Amino acid sequence: MTIRQLYDPAGLQRELRANGVPAAVTFHGNDPRLSCRPYPAGRALLRRIFPADARNPYAAVEIHPSALPPGAAVYLNDTSNSDGYLGLTIGLAYTSKQCTGS
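^ thats the sequence. predicted structure below, dont judge the formating
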């Protein structure tokens, strides 16, 4: 899956979940890690799930769902602010009712 725009967190979360990716997505400082338990992951696993592809400059985030370990979910949090800071926290969390709805 390739994410090209980050403007509708609820819609993106629905789309990810509809495509079989357990996900928690929030923007503007509402960090999903507050309701999610972090899933321990090293750089190698994160690179398999969220590969950086310099050949695809239009992708904000690329996700390879098949690389997700059992019980793991994707979390995305836009940490951009009005002072011109652009940021996106990406990581893994354990799937749970309060985090991913399942």
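Residues 9-18 form the longest helix (10 residues).
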